[in-house]
Design brief:
alpha/beta; seven-stranded mixed sheet; four-stranded antiparallel sheet; 14% strand
Length: 485
């Protein structure tokens, strides 16, 4: 009885309050002689709205349903959006088929050709020491690791390769990626985030463009390889902009541009970087193992201390005759990528035999520095032989192993320009057994530089190979471009 008494008292108190509320005057104000309590009106309106929303139908069927004939007519008229754009009439979709290793001489569509379409700069494809290292690695580790580096994909040869590259370039540490082209567009988003500023050359190739897009940073382009344009852009972004002083800022360039063959003036870029307090991301896929006295890249070529470049990336499929890529820099730069770079964290690690091939290729370069002299001799000879090619002109740097030829006079239509260049490449292959390629771009590529013909020079090419190429290219271009001179 004693326990029930408090409950009874509480219930009685609640009933007393409710009774008092109903017996109290309903009005706090009088409008047109009617007593109205403001909060009761609002509550009443809310209840009415809730009841209306609960009782209404979410879908009102048509008053008159469609007939079978009308349904059939609508189905006949409907056309789904195509999965891909239609193929234009006359488009070249059949490509030459490679049937052997892509060395200086290879087999295409069943016949031997001189190969200037593969970036085998040091001529190491088919090198016996590299092949032996791959065979030994296959026997010891198998074909692949079947897992990302952070889980069960790290093998001792990966660590050896990272250490070898860092030691070769003179950097504290490096990190391997499984796929060369994914290196740069994994590295950029790992460091550049939404709200950061990136100043990039307008001539960067698609992989760099993809990395810029994935970063979601504010991207500003400067004119291709134009240091006055770069300086002006940096000045505009930083002058009187207090916000710019508090956010991360980067300059992104290629050492040798894939879309033009020109070399970036690294000494001037570093000077501007230090003046405006930016960081530099340098893509060295076409200069690693090529430029500099010992092939250590653009920094060695210009005599710039390697520590002045914040982040360096490169694919290993050009000079080292293997696959995959690497990023090198400070220990903090490398360690950050091991937890934040998608291409490293989520991809299966580089097959061990490819890492072994990279180590062997760097060893070969250190032991045979004369290979660089052979490469530069071939580049100089090709420049000399092609200096007066009818309708075409060389736009690449004299030290670039990627020799880029563009039309002296554009037709005004990129499609027509590409068709002419493709015709030249096809005839050179068919008539003289010389394999060359154009720089055609996908619809995703935003680079506005002129298209052209890319010639990849190798230390393995002979003087006869270069003369065969030049004589064929001169003859065919004179024939194809005779109406456009």
């Amino acid at each position: 009885m004693d326990m029930a008494l408090p409950v009874v008292n509480a219930t009685a108190a609640v009933l007393a309050r409710v009774s008092a509320a109903f017996n109290a005057p309903l009005a706090r104000a009088v409008v047109f002689g009617v007593h109205i309590d403001g909060h009761l009106v609002v509550e009443g309106l809310l209840i009415a709205v809730i009841v209306f929303q609960l009782t209404r139908k979410s879908y009102k069927p048509p008053k008159k349903p469609l007939s079978e004939k009308e349904i059939d007519e609508l189905c006949d008229e409907w056309e789904p959006e195509p999965l891909c754009p239609p193929i234009e009439e006359g488009a070249r979709i059949d490509t030459p088929m490679l049937e052997s290793a892509a060395g200086p001489h290879t087999i295409v569509d069943g016949k031997e050709v001189v190969n200037f379409a593969s970036a085998n700069y040091l001529g190491l494809i088919g090198n016996e020491k590299i092949i032996d290292s791959c065979v030994g690695s296959l026997e010891k580790y198998g074909v692949g690791s079947c897992g990302p580096r952070g889980f069960y994909g790290t093998i001792d040869v990966h660590l050896d390769c990272e250490s070898k590259i860092a030691k070769f370039l003179g950097t504290p540490d490096s990190i391997l990626y499984s796929y060369g082209i994914s290196t740069i567009f994994s590295v950029i988003p790992a460091f550049c985030k939404k709200g950061d500023i990136i100043v990039a050359d307008e001539g960067v190739h698609w992989a760099v463009q993809n990395g810029l897009h994935l970063s979601r940073s504010t991207v500003v382009y400067f004119k291709h390889n134009d240091m006055a344009s770069l300086a002006s852009t940096l000045e505009k972004l930083t002058r009187g902009n207090k916000r710019a002083e508090k956010i991360r800022r980067y300059i992104v360039v290629e050492s040798i541009y894939q879309n033009s063959g020109q070399i970036a003036p690294l000494d001037e870029i570093v000077r501007l970087k230090e003046k405006y307090r930016f960081r530099v991301i340098l893509e060295e896929s076409h200069s690693f193992g090529v430029l500099g006295k010992s092939g250590r890249g653009l920094a060695e070529h210009y005599g710039v201390p390697i520590e002045k470049i914040d982040i360096i990336t490169a694919g290993m499929g050009n000079a080292l005759a293997t696959d995959g890529g690497f990023c090198t820099g400070s220990v903090r730069v490398v360690d950050h990528q091991r937890l934040s770079s998608s291409g490293y964290v989520f991809s299966a690690s580089l097959p061990p035999y490819l890492a072994s091939a990279a180590v062997s290729a760097v060893n070969y370069l250190e032991e045979n520095p004369s290979v660089l002299a052979n490469l530069r001799s071939n580049i100089a000879l090709l420049h000399k032989e092609l200096s007066d090619t009818p309708g075409l002109e060389i736009t690449s740097h004299v030290l670039s192993p990627l020799v880029f030829l563009k039309l002296k006079k554009s037709t005004g239509s990129p499609t027509t320009d590409l068709d002419l260049l493709e015709t030249i490449a096809e005839r050179v292959l068919k008539e003289d057994s010389v394999f060359i390629v154009t720089s055609k771009k996908s619809n995703l590529d935003r680079c506005k530089l002129p298209i052209g013909i890319r010639l990849f020079v190798s230390a393995g090419h002979t003087e006869s190979d270069i003369c065969t190429l030049s004589s064929s290219l001169k003859r065919v271009s004179a024939s194809v471009l005779s109406d456009y001179f």
